[in-house]
Amino acid sequence: MSRIGKKPVELPSGVSASVSGQTIEVKGPKGARTFTATDDVTLTVNDNVVTIEPRGKSKRARQQWGMSRTQVANLVTGVTQGFKKELEIQGVGYRAQMQGNTLKLNLGYSHDVDFVAPEGVTITAPKQTEIVVEGIDQQQVGEVAAKIRDWRRPEPYKGKGIRYKGEFIFRKEGKKK
Questions:
Q1: Which 3 state secondary structure label does DSSP give 50?
Q2: Fold (CATH) for 83-164
Q3: What is the pLDDT of residue 5?
Q4: Is residue 165 helix, strand or coil?
Q5: pLDDT of 114
Q6: At the topology level of CATH, where does 9-81 sit?
């Protein structure tokens, strides 16, 4: 039995869900999202509760059961609260600023790095050393944050680079004389 799959997904007030075939569409105050489940699970909406049931007892059906329930829960969270990733920049002269829809990063290269925010994701730079990525799609928010981080990953000797807020960087000791 899937512990995650057994739990029904409750819809808060202001959120509506509709199922057509294997596709569920969730609408809320921040927007609308859809998810198409595999044929191994059955999606049902009763009152303000979405339940997911496996079709059969195969291993694949049980795997899809928990995954589908989590995806639907993420849809509900996305259209109500949204998702957010915070990045911080460490290093002398490293900074970030927003210019319209473009994030300008000064990361010690001979040129500035321009990162254009994709559709559905909002990027803000409250300080020169902080970047906040927000949106209703958890996967897209995480992917954009990872792409920004890839421009200058934190290095283990001085810890310079772009890191997630609260991320621990294992530090190494430098050369000895």
A1: strand
A2: Outer Surface Protein A; domain 3 (3.90.930)
A3: 87
A4: coil
A5: 95
A6: Outer Surface Protein A; domain 3 (3.90.930)
